[in-house]
UniProtKB/TrEMBL annotation, chain A:
Cellular compartments annotated: Cell membrane; Membrane
This protein's name: Carbohydrate ABC transporter membrane protein 2 (CUT1 family)
Transmembrane segments: 12-34, 72-92, 104-124, 136-159, 180-201, 237-258
PROSITE patterns: ABC_TM1
Similarity comment: family membership: Belongs to the binding-protein-dependent transport system permease family.
PANTHER family xref list: ABC TRANSPORTER PERMEASE PROTEIN, GLUCOSE IMPORT SYSTEM PERMEASE PROTEIN GLCU
UniProtKB/TrEMBL annotation, chain B:
Annotated transmembrane regions: 26-49, 86-105, 117-140, 179-206, 241-263, 289-312
Pfam families given in the database record: BPD_transp_1
PROSITE patterns, A to Z: ABC_TM1
GO cellular component annotations of the record: plasma membrane
A Gene Ontology biological process term: transmembrane transport
Cellular location(s): Cell membrane
Similarity field: Belongs to the binding-protein-dependent transport system permease family.
ABC transmembrane type-1 domain span: 83-312
InterPro entries found in the cross-reference section: ABC_transporter_permease, MetI-like, MetI-like_sf
CDD domains assigned to the protein according to its UniProt record, in alphabetical order: TM_PBP2
Name of the protein: Carbohydrate ABC transporter membrane protein 1 (CUT1 family)
SUPFAM superfamilies hit by this protein: MetI-like
Length: 273, 320
């Protein structure tokens, strides 16, 4: 009995130590972001701030607000559109499959693994041609298209679980392709939509390569602005850390409130990164 | 959403469809298919074409020069360094993430109190952007202070230089570069492991929960120790998950760009440079579009070598 309770004790000790280790960067962000100018020196980086100083947040907020707005204007429509298209594709591929549809699906899926560097140069030329270069709608288009494979995959796997007999019964009653989608599939896929939307919102919000190559200055989403902020020598660390927290806040909040769905998305989309 | 199945795909017959009903579903799928055809396959072909031209200036030129860009890359100090770094990063990143993920999953799965809290702490970095991770870890691993300050106070007199180290162990001459593990890569890999091990944990946790307790129990009754149960029963059942994890993590690692770009950049003597960073800089800072295309095509090739067999085998398996 003695040894048993001591192993339990050590197990918790180890878990708490690991959790603390995982939270070290969070400690650093929070502590630094609340420091005043005189405290943000390297040798004091582990110290707690003397008091709560919001100057860092104020400066970061003023600098990043336009980019935060850009990111919302980008991520929300891109998420909604990819989810809707993914649902339709998933519906067709799972319930109205045709000869060659599986091959088509496989060819689509390949698109989610490619390094985007391999499409970047023509993509930029193309966006310039259709005059969507350096615009939020342009980035929305790009994210919707390259998000199609993963969204299609997630909905397809979700819809396979809906019994076909049910749809067949509806079909005999005279419900058509769209009727079945609207009246049976959509109402049954609320949780599917939550999972896909969380996944897609997080990916689009956090994305960097398309953002940095397809937009400049005023149109830049938050991650590009954060990278510029941290690359700048004249911006103080408290501002950088406050900026990092502001940039991460939307996805962190999504995670905090919907972590169950977030994890389901991770696993369902587990053939993506 | 089928999270517990070993493969990502599920096959089942769809609705019985009459010939006359085929048009609408195909029509609805068409925009996506066309978009992917153009934006994925069309653009890849175009990049491939550019990589065989001499478009290495701001003004576009398109003389066909065969494999010259590729020859240049493979004889380039920076690209050779990139290949070494990618290899080192991939091995470290996959190995540590999987070990860490499995360990955390075992800990969290051992009927503890506050399981949800611990799970959430280990997974939350997945919600962050690689940019945020890079910015923060650059600060944490800052060699002049950062974690070294804590190490020094614990009595470590000569703490590591983390991502500023130019050390390569062992130093083997190969081509133009010193081959080995660049110490600076360890720092970058640590940040990546921090971000991704929660994901590995979630995957393993789903796997552990799908192993029936009866099986483990009966092995224990037969006199197996906990270690044996883990080795002989649990590990083999987790193999498909480990395989998926290797594929996912490897393709992330081959493509990695933003984390390194935000955290260290190419580094002194290119000790933390990777193809993604080189491609970005040579294309968009140096206007070497053809060379950039060459790097992108090599990245695509590496990823394809991994992904295509995986896709084919997943489809075969689910079709049975």
């Amino acid at each position: 009995m003695q040894t048993r309770s001591s192993t339990v004790f050590f197990k918790y000790l180890l878990l708490i130590a690991l959790a603390a280790l995982f939270l070290v960067p969070v400690y650093v962000i929070i502590v630094t972001s609340f420091k005043g100018l005189d405290e943000v020196t390297l040798d004091k980086m582990w110290h707690l701030p003397k008091g709560l100083d919001f100057a860092g947040y104020k400066e970061a907020y003023d600098k990043l607000l336009p980019n935060l707005r850009n990111s919302f204007l980008l991520a929300i429509p891109a998420t909604a559109l990819s989810a809707l298209m993914g649902a339709m594709n998933g519906y067709v591929l799972s319930k109205w499959s045709f000869r060659g549809s599986n091959l088509l699906f496989a060819l689509m899926l390949f698109g989610m693994f490619i390094p985007y560097q391999s499409v970047l140069i023509p993509l930029i030329q193309f966006m310039q041609q259709i005059e969507l270069y350096n615009s939020i709608p342009g980035l929305v288009l790009v994210h919707v298209i390259y998000g199609l494979p993963i969204c299609t995959l997630m909905f397809r796997n979700f819809y396979v679980g809906i019994p076909t007999e049910m749809l067949e019964a509806a079909k005999i009653d005279g419900t058509g392709f769209f009727g079945i989608f609207r009246r049976i599939m959509l109402p049954l896929s609320i949780s599917g939509f939550v999972v896909v939307c969380i996944w897609q919102f997080t990916s689009v919000w956090n994305e960097f390569l398309f953002a940095v190559t397809l937009t400049t200055q005023k149109k830049q989403p938050i991650m590009v602005a954060l990278q510029n902020l941290s690359g700048s020598q004249i911006v103080h660390w408290n501002v950088q850390m406050a900026g990092a927290l502001l940039a991460a806040l939307p996805t962190l909040l999504v995670y905090a409130f919907l972590s169950r769905y977030f994890v389901r998305g991770l696993l369902a989309g587990s053939i993506k990164g | 959403m089928g999270e517990c199945s070993s493969g990502p795909f599920h096959w089942r017959e769809g609705i019985m469809i009459h010939r006359s009903e085929r048009a609408i579903p195909i029509l609805m799928l068409l925009p996506s298919v066309l978009a992917i055809a153009i934006f994925v396959y069309g653009f890849i072909s175009w990049t491939g074409y550019v990589s065989f031209t001499d478009w290495n200036t701001l003004v576009r030129t398109s003389h066909f020069i065969g494999f010259d860009n590729y020859k240049f890359l493979f004889q380039d100090f920076r690209f050779q360094s990139d290949l070494r770094n990618t290899l080192a990063f991939t091995v470290l990143f996959i190995g540590l993430t999987m070990l860490c993920g499995l360990f955390l999953a075992r800990m969290v799965d051992s009927k503890i109190k506050g399981e949800a809290l611990f799970r959430n702490i280990f997974i939350f970095p997945m919600a962050l952007s690689f940019i945020v991770t890079g910015v923060v870890w650059q600060w944490v691993l800052n060699p002049t202070t950062g974690i070294n300050l804590a190490l020094k106070s614990m009595g470590v007199s000569n703490p590591p230089k983390w991502f500023t180290s130019t050390l390569i162990i062992p130093k083997l001459h190969l081509g133009l570069i010193d081959f080995g593990l660049p110490v600076a890569i360890i720092a970058v890999a640590l940040a990546a492991v921090w971000q991704m091990s929660g994901f590995a944990m979630a995957m393993y946790l789903a796997g552990l929960r799908s192993i029936s307790e009866d099986l483990r129990e009966s092995a224990r009754i037969d006199g197996a120790t906990e270690k044996q149960v883990f080795r002989k029963i649990v590990l083999p059942q987790l193999k498909p998950i480990s395989m998926s994890l290797i594929i996912i993590l490897a393709h992330i690692s081959l493509k990695i760009f933003d984390l390194i770009y935000a955290m260290t950049g190419p580094g002194a003597m290119f000790v933390t440079d990777v193809p993604g960073v080189y491609m970005f800089e040579t294309t968009f800072r140096g206007n070497h579009y053809a060379q950039g295309s060459g790097i992108a095509m090599i990245m695509l090739l590496l990823v394809s070598l991994l992904i295509v067999p995986y896709l084919i085998s997943s489809f075969r398996k689910e079709r049975e």
